[in-house]
Design a protein that fits this description.
It is a single chain. Helix content is 40%, strand content 0%. By secondary structure, the protein is an all-alpha fold. The chain has one domain.
Amino acid sequence: MKRKGVGINPLLVTIMTGVELQESEVPRLTMLPGITGRMVYKRITKLNSPHPPKKQRL
């Protein structure tokens, strides 16, 4: 899985924890300290997709 597919910015993890992520390491919500992980997860799940599904009736 690519980093971009996860939805968490590796720079955010680096700034909040002070630990540089390896290139092969995937950022996870558990890497964020405190309640920040839960807040980020809540925001990710609430985001709408950029393109709503198209319904075509025949």
